[in-house]
Each structure stands twice: as structure tokens, then as C-alpha cells.
Amino acid sequence: MLIDILAAAGGEAPQNQFGFMEAMEQGGAIAWAILGVMIIMSVGSFYILITKLLEQNKIMNQYKAVRSSFWRAGSLSEGASKLEKNSAWRQLVDDGLAAEAQHAKMTDSLEAHDWLHGSLARSEAAINSKLAGGLPFLATVGATAPFVGLLGTVIGIYRAMIGIAIAGSAQIDKVAGPVGEALIMTAIGLLVAVPAVLAYNWLQSRNRRISELLNGFSTDLLANITSRGAVKPAVLTAPSTQQAAKTTAPAAATKA
After folding, report:
1. Angle, CA of 112, 118 and 121, to the nearest 5°
2. According to the model, what pLDDT value does residue 168 have?
3. Which residue from 43, 126, 173, 214 puts its CA 20 to 30 A from 88's CA?
């Protein structure tokens, strides 16, 4: 309405000189450099979040195949053929089979068992290390992005103080631009840091869950190898137990 009145009166509408782009232009090369750093941090954080989430989902989905088909195979070699190549679970099985081949060459049975256990633990640690890749970047962004924004804030306030000193008074048109730039930098720093911290904590919790699954699978592998295939996870006997219970229940009801 005000714009229409001014246009009708033959005047021009006032232009906003204190927007985001105007504040960045007033900040100069330093402001643009800080903004560029925070954009890189933000893009890198979301890239790591997406790629790691896909990687974790893939490993968890592959675990379903381990539970449903791997332990039903007659041997570890046969079970390994049912797993996806280059998967974490296939790597553990392949490393376990390679360690088993060397295990028989050791004369001390206790040392051989420790070496076999260590071989599986080393393979498990390598998988966990790969899963943790990129998370330090998220932690770094979450810790440093607010301070990078604070650097822009300090520079903006400094420029506002210089404007006041030159003008001799705190005129709003002299300090609005630098102060606006300072507030923008603080906000951008927080907007970059908060998602990075949330992503780091979420991915870490999912990695701990995967680590638990890997540790349990590695323990089952060790038991199966050292028992020469006699020991297998209890999940295989659970359906048999349930079937036996179902068979016993009708028989008991008939006798009653």
C-alpha cells in the first residue's frame, strides 16, 4: 500500500540496503571467505550423513541373509557363497577361513586359539574403522562451525565500531550493515553445527549397534571353527524347539 502511494505521488519506493547480499558485500572478501568455509562444512556434513546412512542400511540388510541362510549351510565355505561379495559379513567369514587354514600349523593349542581369536578381532576392527570413516569430520564441524561464525561476528562488530568512530556518533545507517553481517554469521555457524552434531551422534549410535552384531557373528564363527562345525548359533534350534512345543501341546491335550 505504501509503495502504491509513493508511486502515485511520483516518488520511488525505498530500497532495502541491509539485506543478506548487501551485508555480505559490505563485509568484503573476509565475509565471503567465511561463508565459503561454512558452505563447504555444511555440504560435507550432509554428504557424509547420506553416504554413511546408506552404508549402514546395507550392512543391516545383509545381516538378515546371515540369519536366514548362512548358518543353515553345511559348512562355512558353503555359507560364504550365499553372502554378498565385498560385504562386511563375507569379509569376516573369509578372514576366519584363512585363519583356520593357518591355525592347524601352530603346535601350541592355546596360542593357536588366541591367534585365531585375534585374527577375527582384527578383521572386525577393520570393518568398524571403515564404518567410522568420515565421522571425525562431522565432529570437527560440530565443534568448530560456531567459532567460524563467531569470527565473522567479531569482524562485523569491529567494522561497526570503526563506522561509529568515523561518523562520530552511533548512526543506525553506519552500524546496521556490519551488525547485520555479524548476526548473519552467528546464525549460519549454528545452522551448520547443529545438523553435524545430530548426524554424528545418530551415526555413532547406529555404528555401535552394527559393532554388536559383528561381535556376535565373530564369536559364533570362532565357536564354529574351533568345534569343527559342531557349534552353531541358537537361532537355528529355536524353530525346532517351537515346533516341538507345538507338537507336544496337542499330545498333552489329547491325553487330558
Report:
1. 145
2. 65
3. 43
